[in-house]
Amino acid sequence: MDIADTILTGTAMGFTLIKSMGLDIGQSVIEEDQLGQITSALKKARRKRVRVLVPNDFVVADRFDEAANHKIVPAEMIPPDWMGLDIGPATIKTYCLAISEAKTVFWNGPMGVFEWPPFAQGTKSIAECIADTEATTIVGGGDSDAALRQYGLADKMDFVSTGGGAAMRLLEGKKLPAVEALTDS
User: Can you give the pTM of this predicted structure?
Assistant: First the structure.
């Protein structure tokens, strides 16, 4: 929040935000341990004028399975027994517009279950938007790296690291033990 002007959320973080707003998310995965921090994070975002974009549609499935029945629904209409496994086309369009306006893009984490074709379009489209932007592009995280390699886009990024959690901590201004050990010697 201290260095971003826009934050785009994918599935797990997006569902956590949506649930915190009181909307039903069906059986979608959320980050339970983050629910308590959401309110204060959103207040900080408003105070710092950081836009936090939440998916407005999803590809949902009736079970966690590559062959599951699936459909696209608005975020507020996820059926109770279904789960979101990817962002939808309206969200992709909104997010790609935000990416096209950015000067620096830091991407950490896929938009859905990109390993399964029915739920890969969100991650693939966002990766393509990032690859096509004129912005400086930094990607952190093993899953993001895997997605870029799967789509043949890794070489179109300015920097790719498999250390997603470490990269996030570094951006937060936290000290990393390995970096500290190198700077102390």
Answer: 0.87
